[in-house]
Amino acid sequence: MGSPGILGLLLLYLNVLISHSSAAQQQPLHSVIDAAPKRVAVIGAGAGGSFAAYELRKLADASNIPVNVTVFERASYIGGRSTTVNAFDDPAYPIELGASIFVEINENLMNASQALGLDIRGADHFRPKETEESIGIWDGSNFVFTMKNDSSWWNIGRLIWRYGLAPIRTQNLMKTVVGKFLKLYQEPLFPFRSLSEAAAEVDLLDVTASPGDAFLEANSISELFAREIIQASTRVNYGQNLPLIHGLESMVCMATDGAVSIPGGNWRIFDGVLQAAKADVRLNTSVTEIVKTNDGAVQISSKPTSDLDSTSPDESEFDEVIIAGPLQYSGISISPPLQHIPDDIPYVKLHVTLFASPHRISPEFFGLRDKNAHAPETILTTLPEGHNLGSNPKGVGPADFWSISTLRTISRFVEQEDGEQQREDHYVYKIFSPERPTAKFIAQVFGIEYSHGTSGSVTIAPDNTTIGDLPKGEISWFHEKVWHPYPLLYPRVTFEDTLLAPSIWYTSGIESFISTMETSALMGRNVAALMVRSWQREKDERNDSLTGKIEL
Ligand SMILES: Cc1cc2nc3c(=O)[nH]c(=O)nc-3n(C[C@H](O)[C@H](O)[C@H](O)COP(=O)(O)OP(=O)(O)OC[C@H]3O[C@@H](n4cnc5c(N)ncnc54)[C@H](O)[C@@H]3O)c2cc1C
Ligand SMILES: *[C@@H]1O[C@H](CO)[C@@H](O)[C@H](O)[C@H]1NC(C)=O
Ligand SMILES: *[C@@H]1O[C@H](CO)[C@@H](O)[C@H](O)[C@H]1NC(C)=O
Ligand SMILES: *[C@@H]1O[C@H](CO)[C@@H](O)[C@H](O)[C@H]1NC(C)=O
Ligand SMILES: *[C@@H]1O[C@H](CO)[C@@H](O)[C@H](O)[C@H]1NC(C)=O
Ligand SMILES: *[C@@H]1O[C@H](CO)[C@@H](O)[C@H](O)[C@H]1NC(C)=O
Ligand SMILES: *[C@@H]1O[C@H](CO)[C@@H](O)[C@H](O)[C@H]1NC(C)=O
Description:
Layout: H1 5-19, H2 27-33, E1 38-43, H3 47-62, E2 67-72, E3 84-86, E4 94-96, E5 102-103, H4 107-115, E6 121-122, E7 133-138, E8 143-148, H5 152-163, H6 166-182, H7 195-201, H8 205-209, H9 212-218, H10 223-238, H11 247-253, E9 259-261, H12 267-276, E10 280-282, E11 285-292, E12 298-304, E13 314-318, E14 320-323, E15 333-335, E16 350-357, E17 378-381, E18 403-415, E19 421-433, H13 439-445, E20 477-483, E21 499-501, E22 504-506, H14 517-551
Parallel strand pairs: 1-2, 1-14, 2-10, 7-17, 11-15, 14-22
Antiparallel strand pairs: 3-4, 5-9, 6-9, 7-8, 11-12, 12-13, 16-19, 16-20, 17-18, 18-19, 21-22
Helix pairs in contact: 3-12, 3-14, 9-11
This protein binds flavin-adenine dinucleotide and 2-acetamido-2-deoxy-beta-D-glucopyranose (6 copies).
């Protein structure tokens, strides 16, 4: 059972020469020589890490390079910022707590979903669609625009009526920008070592260099349309206003046609690709340290997440490591220290409040005089005219929240006073806000009687009551979460490289460019492709020297 030795190797070689067609002659020799699998550690089981593992498996198998992929994930679940919680703790009602939508042009997510046989549904599949108006854009005192539930031509007519050619110009501009971006998916640009250079090649640096408002103005898109429609979208998608967020991400916000999601949770894509990758996934395991050893290997120290103070980390050696999440939040130390450490960049702080209630959004709160009127099921926000907060990251303005969406209804059996069970429809809502919503705020928005708290105007902060202080009959279930969901996307023209040091790869540089599940997945595939290319080169070199030896 020892190693085959030179003779054994030659015999094996002869065997395969006999049993294989001439085209594949040399390959089996290599499988033998390279038999020790490439050991890759992936840190993070989100979109980036899971797609890195998926692509490694595909490419390594295709080029006959054995690979062993270990995925370390400090959380107890796969998906990272893409994850669900169950309404009423009932697995029948998973609700997205993080990333909720992707779009048809997101080929990495679409293709993988199809390959995995996952169902892909319209993102508002479950929305009750009970109101005349589906979306309202609120500026803190008025709806500046509302979208009718049904007739899209009627909406288009109203858009043109109010905004003239701006919607069409925006659509065309978005298509041009997206077209440039999609070149990054293909050869000769893919895979790219430097995102800064690749972005320059597809002519997108002008777009990332200017804030959204300046970029739109330069493209003759009216301030009114930019503020009322495009900014409503940058606020719900990224929690920032147009004078802050760069032109590219602003355009991404207008490319949400055909928004879809995976029933049960988008994380199922990442779970599926990790299985397809045959990766060894270690949940509840935090990587604490990466050490480059003298022989060029990478030593990874990890600890159970529940016991980070333990003094004896688990150590294992790898050939390559991929850091697939923002380094600044990873708690990983790297030694010897990196020559260039990725900048800490400011991230948005977002409160996500999910809850269920028999109440509907209060038409009164939103100034609708007709008591029988319904507030739109989705309420987006923008700043009122003349209220310019510039690039201030605290940009929510008078509305106080980014968005309120009605996600679905759930039928509940609720016990009445007489002990009878009665069926009741409860709505499930999602609020995005920069501060934790107070009980008073929620009570007012949903027309709930609530006596506690002070009088005065409604603000989310600073009083310290929370949704949990409201009666159980009014709020039948809730879940609160604070995220660092995406960076503040200030204009910039350079992005972190994919290789931080030899054998230490990084995916999260792309978040300053475009921050979505798809782009993280793209970057995961990108570093995997670069890695396999480098192995291929290594293999070719080895083959060259080996062929030389055999000829001698
Ligand atoms: C509320 C919210 C809404 C969003 N909406 C959308 C949307 O609609 N559409 C969209 O496309 N995107 C959306 N996003 C953004 C999207 O979620 C992210 O861009 C994407 O999921 C990032 O994937 P990632 O793999 O790069 O990072 P992550 O998903 O953050 O994955 C990184 C993983 O690494 C793990 N990790 C970190 N450090 C360590 C360590 N030391 N050891 C072990 N594991 C570690 C983390 O636990 C995490 O699981 C949203 C995000 C949030 C939070
Ligand atoms: C190995 O090298 C030889 C000579 O350079 C070349 O003809 C052959 O295609 C290579 N084989 C592989 C599997 O790369
Ligand atoms: C893959 O690597 C891990 C971590 O080093 C190791 O525990 C496992 O045994 C390896 N699997 C195979 C099939 O080599
Ligand atoms: C991870 O930890 C959680 C508790 O935090 C536990 O419920 C779960 O079973 C653990 N999962 C694994 C795979 O160890
Ligand atoms: C997705 O699938 C289509 C059709 O097979 C293919 O043309 C495209 O290149 C794929 N895209 C990616 C990113 O895999
Ligand atoms: C809204 O439109 C959907 C179809 O898109 C329809 O099923 C629903 O009944 C409409 N609701 C109202 C209130 O018009
Ligand atoms: C809220 O603040 C008040 C006074 O500032 C304090 O007495 C009270 O305990 C706080 N309540 C909670 C739930 O933190």
